[in-house]
Amino acid sequence: MCSCEPSVTGGSSESPGTASTGSEVSGPGFSTGTGLIRTGDRSIRLELEIARSPAQRAFGLMHRRSLGERAGMIFLYETKSTGGFYMKDTLIPLSIAFLDGQGKILRILDMDPCREEPCKVYYPHVAYKRALEVNQGALASWGVSEGDVIELHT
């Protein structure tokens, strides 16, 4: 998964390493943390890889063959973004939640792997400061919806 800022069109050329979030490949030096999704009277705990730098955000979840059931990647931005995401070299279908600076979910989209170029770009049509990617359908199966809050613990 690539976070596509207006001028970013591809992924990173950095070599993958090992991840601790139930996935097989990790990108350029991701740190880890946990996320807590609060939806109604339920809380869902996630193991997260954190993409802070432009290189990390560009690499995202590319080349992963799987992602743990309660695992994901959180993309952090210093300023609000309206850029889209695309699935170049991403092998697994994902759901993405776009969040404001306090973790409130503004928009949720499902994204499918790109099988041929040009890859579809998924735009949230909202300004966001964070984005969370998990296995496609996981957010819906957990009853998560727009307006719910995700707390990040790094």
Largest sheet composition = 7 strands, mixed
Mean pLDDT: 87
The structure class reads mainly beta
CATH architecture: Sandwich
What's the domain count?
1
Question: What does this entry show, briefly?
Answer:
This protein has 154 residues and is mainly β.
Furnish the topology, listing elements before pairings.
Blueprint: E1 2-4, E2 31-39, E3 42-51, H1 54-59, E4 71-81, E5 84-86, E6 94-99, E7 105-111, E8 121-122, E9 128-135, H2 138-141, E10 149-153
Parallel strand pairs: 3-4
Antiparallel strand pairs: 1-5, 2-3, 2-10, 4-9, 5-8, 6-7, 6-9
What does this structure look like?
Helix content is 6%, strand content 42%. The chain has 154 residues and is mainly beta. The chain has a seven-stranded mixed β-sheet. It has a three-stranded antiparallel β-sheet with strand order 1-5-8. The longest helix has 6 residues, at 54-59. It is globular.
